[in-house]
Amino acid sequence: MDKKKILICDDDEGIIDVLEMIMEEVGHEVMSVNDSLKVQEVIDKVQPDLLILDLWMPRLSGQDVLRYLRSHPQHDKLPVIVISASRDGEQIANAAGADQFIAKPFDLGNIVESVDALLN
């Protein structure tokens, strides 16, 4: 498999660290941002192949980030996996245009399978 660029956006550094480690271990190039207001800038700069996005973040929610991406033609096809511990997270993620939803706490194997499925 070609090395793909994955962007992780979560305000929890522990989640970012675990996801970075797992994604790099399976051969992907990983970038991360812990401030949802900077996601658009990073996407424009690095052109990721996939975004893993936390739903609940301070300042700008993942839901708002995703709605923004889906409303702009240059980003509307970017595969997005939304992660959240929210009970209503899956409904919210789907309504905003997520390609996949994974509940926290998540199984690392499930994340890898979801990433692989969306990238292939």
UniProtKB/TrEMBL annotation:
Residues 5-119 form the Response regulatory domain. The keyword NAD does not apply. It holds the Pfam family Response_reg. The modification 4-aspartylphosphate is found at D54. SUPFAM superfamilies: CheY-like. Keywords: Phosphoprotein. PROSITE patterns: RESPONSE_REGULATORY. It comes from the Bacteria. One of its GO terms (biological process) is phosphorelay signal transduction system. PANTHER family: RESPONSE REGULATORY DOMAIN-CONTAINING PROTEIN, STRESS RESPONSE REGULATOR PROTEIN 1. This is Response regulatory domain-containing protein.
